[in-house]
Every structure is written in structure tokens, then in C-alpha cells.
Amino acid sequence: MGRVIIPYKPRALQTEIHNALKRWSVLVCHRRFGKSVLAVNHLIKAVAQCKQPRPRVAYLAPLYKQSKAIAWDYLRFYAQPIPGVTFNESELRADLPNGGRISLYGADNPDALRGIYLDAVVLDEYAQINPRVFPEIIRPALVDREGSALFIGTPWGKNHFFKLYEEAKFSDDWYAATFKASETGIVPAKELEAARNLMSQEQYDQEFECSFESAIIGAYYGDQLRQAEAGGRITSVPHDPNIQVFTFWDLGIGDAMSIWFCQRVGKELHFIDYYETSGEGMAYYAKLLKDKPYTYNRHYMPHDAESREIGTGKSRRDVAEALGIRPIDVVPRGEHVDDGINAVRAMLPRCWFDEQKCSQGINALKSYRKEWDEKRGEFKDKPLHDWSSHCADALRTAAMSDFDHADYPSLTMHTQFDPRVIPRSITSNVKFDPRRAQ
Questions:
Q1: Per residue in 114-144, pLDDT tens?
Q2: Nearest one of 42, 38, 41 to 11, comparing CA atoms
Q3: pLDDT at 239
Q4: Do 280 and 256 touch, CB atoms closer than 8 A?
Q5: Is residue 21 predicted with pLDDT exceeding 60?
Q6: Which whole-number Å values give the CA distances from 233 to 246, 383, 393, in the listed order?
Q7: pTM more than 0.85
Q8: HSE-up of 368 (CA within 13 Å, CB side)?
């Protein structure tokens, strides 16, 4: 491409970071550090200097609209001097004359990333990105070209970003660094003091001092989960094979399908497992339940399990029962979402969670929070719909059901699966061996 001058004058710390980055890097940065500018220029350099044919690099934010709001103007400004570069705003991408491409994505539509290859990726505000996105979608896209990943963001409690940073600090394959406002000198002292006067101490510590100890602002279940951790109720909670298991669902197709697995032990509720994925039909979950070593009492699904498809006339409850997921109880929809949230809050003090098998669910519950109103500068009185919503909705199914106090008859068999009653429309992608059917 020849020599091109990009109008980017990095600060001393940004220069230090550019020179220190490895294939895998994680940066914990305070607000107004300049991480998004750093990220965009990192990608421009990566795509321009890549030796692979048709290089591809990507910027990923928690939401697609965030990618456009945060990075699109920066990308146009800094890449504009490249001769022959073209910009496609409808697809949020820049095409370079060497055949390379810089694309902006949102983690709220992870399926748009499936099937692509990448030479480099930046995951911005990684603490707010669904932790499934990187290992399931992004990491495979980096394999064949040995691409690199840069994780950047501000803390959001001790979630997957915290875990990643802690592991990276002790790995020779990673570059990990934290940049606090009190140490970088980037934000003037008088501005920091003004921010401190307007923010709570927790908010200030999180946003400017990169504290992972601060609670997630606006989280619905933060206090209850901190109490669970302090009380030792997030620990090893083994499955008791002598006690039947209840399941609680949030139903999705394009969105994630979430399932909690729980055993009642006296007055305690033992959540022994959690599962979530997306893009699968009910037959997939029927097999999932069958493969787990649990004896089920019953399965609770939300009200939309009764919704019928126009083409087949069948509800998802019908399909699930035909596949052997039974008995199913449908939990009525509450009049207000706050009723369900309050029911979960009331239930959580008696809940125990397996730290390993429920880690994804625990992480989502910690992140479930109110939606922020940018115009008014305050939280809205409703939940933010993001990757954590499905898990929280599944637990709300549990809290709104009668499983906690109903005296159901004991069921002595595993859920039965009869391949002869599986609807023809859903058997194409799932293989059942009649010799192994119970």
C-alpha cells in the first residue's frame, strides 16, 4: 500500500500499549482514557500490515448501535487518508485497497459473526459482552489465520472480564495492564474532583479507579448475590441422585434458550446446573435433558410456551411434550415484570448455586440491571434487554411458579423419550437410536 500517514498522535501510554500488545491482550482502562481511539487505530494498522490475503479485522461492542456511536466516526476519520479506501455505512465497514476490511459489529447479534474469519479483533467494553460470544464464535474465527484479540473495558463487577484479566496477569502469552485515572494523569485533577462530587463512591471507583470490587450500578440482584457469596451459598452444590430435579425455562429461538436445574432440599433450593445456547430447536433440548444424569419431577416454562405457530398449529409445549419433555407446567405471565423481580429477590436468600456448573448463570444474574436513560441521565423503571435477560427470565419462571411449596407426587423414572411420536417437521437434524430409547 505504500507509506500512509494516519492522523493519529498517540499519547505516551497509548504508544506504550501499541508496542507491548501480544496476540492476546487485555486492558482495564478508566473512562476517557482513549481506548476506543486506540482500538480503531490498532485495527487499521493490523489490516494494513497483515500478510494474509484478504485480511479481515473487527471491532465488537456490546450492542450494534454502540459500535456505530463509538467507533464509526473514528474509523472514517483515521482511515480516510488511505488511498482508495471506501466506506459502507449501512454495513459499518471500511474496505482497503489491499483487499482488507474493517467491520464493526454488536454482540447483541452474534449470529452475524458466524462463518467469518478474522486476523484481529477488538472486544470493547468486554465486561458487558455475553461471555459465550468469544469462545463459541470469535475464537474459532481466529484459528486458521492465527488471529489476535484485544479485550478492553472498564470493570463491571467480578464477572468474566475480571476472570479473564486475573488469568491473563499470570500468563506469558498475554499482555495485561490496568490504567487508573489517579495514575495516568489524562483526566485533569479538577475534572476528577468534579466527577467524584457528582458520583457515588462505588460509581467513581468503578469508572475512574478501575475497581472490580464495586457493585454493578443498577443491578437488580446485586445485594442478594453478595449475601449469597458472603454466606457461602455459591460453592460446590453436588447433584443428589435421590432427589428429583425441576427445570425452569426461558424460551428463545434466535435469542438464547435458558434452563435452570434445581433440587428442593428441605427449605433450601439447590441450583445444581444451568444451560444456555441459541439457534437450536426443541429436539436439541430434549436430547440435552435425556443425556444429563437427572431424574426430573416436572418442567416449568413461561407463558409463551402456549403460543401456537400459524403453519403447524402446534405450541412449543406441544412439541416439547411430543419429544418426551413432560410433565410441563406453564407459568402465567405476571401483570408487571417488577412482580417477578421481587419474587426472585424473595427467593434468593434460600438459594444455593453450584459455582462451576452455574457460573454462566451467576454471571448473568449479577449483570441483570435496569436500562439507562441517556437523555435524562437516570435509570428507567424496566430491565435492560441484553445477554443477561434470558437467564434472569428463566429464574423468574422459577420464582413465579408453585414448585417451591407444591407437594408433587414422586416420579421414579427419567423423562421418557419415544422416537415414534416425534413430529416429522423436527426430526431432520436430530438422530435417535430406537435401541437406546427408554
A1: 889 999 999 999 999 989 899 999 999 999 9
A2: 38
A3: 97
A4: no
A5: yes
A6: 19, 26, 21
A7: no
A8: 26
**pLDDT tens digits for 52-82?**
999 999 999 999 999 999 999 999 999 999 9
Domain boundaries, the chain: 12-208, 223-426
The architecture of the domain spanning 12-208 is 3-Layer(aba) Sandwich (3.40)
| Gyration radius from the chain CA atoms | 24
Q: Please choose, from the candidates 207, 126, 128, the residue with its C-alpha nearest in 3D space to the C-alpha of residue 168.
A: 126
Residue matched to cell numbers 506469558? 172
- Terminal-residue alpha carbon distance, the chain: 64
Q: Write down the architecture of domain 223-426 according to CATH.
A: 2-Layer Sandwich (3.30)
Q: With 60 as the cut, is the pLDDT of residue 418 above it? A: no
The position carrying cell 500500500 is 1
If pLDDT is split at 50, 70 and 90, which confidence band does 384 have?
confident
11-28 as b/e: b if 16+ CB within 10 A? eebbeebeeebeebbbbb
